[in-house]
Design goal:
Strand order of the largest sheet: 5-4-1-6-7-8
Strand content: 15-25%
Number of domains: 2
Shape: globular
Oligomer: single chain
CATH superfamily of the largest domain: HAD superfamily/HAD-like
Helix content: 40-55%
Largest sheet: 6 strands, parallel
Number of strands: 8
CATH architecture of the largest domain: 3-Layer(aba) Sandwich
Length: about 230
């Protein structure tokens, strides 16, 4: 019997792309528009990855003004800030190596899909993966676990927990919500340290291993899939 194709779910911001410049600019604009004190640089970088609707209330925006903050953020982000971004060096080569090894690849991001797809198109990632999945425009209605569920369903994989008999699945991400979203479906998450996690964040969340260099990503993924 042919072994089912392994599936690699890939976070976008902080894992495949350095998207901090565009996101941080939009966040700064939102705080300025609301007249709320702007967080420090380290806190601003922590906005990269989780749903923006979680990050604003966690960092000084009154709950009743979160929608206003999101609108102000998107004024900058949707008008071009989303493309103030770059693919991390070595990522295309890693994706090609995983494809050559027989893996299915899909982006699974908490970023709204209406932004994730054109970003992946613009920077050449869409051609290197099988699909791109993201959150709805109203990010408050979605979690990373929801995005993972959407990807699994669309790709014909079983619902939680994932059954290895249907092919091994692994998540690759740079923040704790990637680990937790994967774990909700019984999927292990390989953490990458070139993204935006705080010290010890990925290990505390339960990442099965950490990868420190993009050049080692494909090998680490394949080793974990074969374990």
């Amino acid at each position: 019997m042919t072994r089912p194709e392994p599936l690699v779910l890939l976070d976008l911001d902080g894992t495949l792309m350095d998207s901090a410049p565009g996101i941080v600019a939009g966040v700064r604009h939102a705080y300025a528009t609301l007249g709320v004190p702007v967080p420090d640089d380290a806190t601003l970088r922590s906005f990269v990855g989780p749903p923006i609707t979680d990050s604003f209330p966690a960092h000084g925006v009154p709950p009743e003004r979160v929608d206003e903050a999101v609108r102000a953020y998107r004024e900058v982000y949707a008008s071009g800030g989303m493309y103030d971004n770059r693919v991390f060096d070595g990522v295309p080569e890693a994706l090609r190596a995983l494809r050559d090894a027989g893996c299915g690849l899909a982006v699974a991001t908490s970023k709204p899909e209406v932004y994730a797809r054109p970003i992946c198109d613009r920077f050449g990632l869409s051609a290197l993966v099988d699909a791109v999945f993201g959150a709805p425009v109203d990010e408050a209605t979605s979690t990373k676990a929801d995005v993972v569920a959407k990807a699994l369903a669309a790709l014909g994989r079983p619902p939680s927990p994932v059954d290895a008999a249907d092919g091994p699945v692994i998540m690759v991400g740079d923040r704790e919500h990637d680990v937790h979203g994967a774990a909700a479906h019984g999927i292990a998450c390989l953490g990458v340290t070139w993204g935006y996690a705080g010290d010890g964040e990925l290990t505390a969340a339960g990442a099965v291993a950490l990868v420190d260099d993009v050049a080692d990503l494909a090998g680490a993924v394949l080793a974990r899939l074969r374990a």
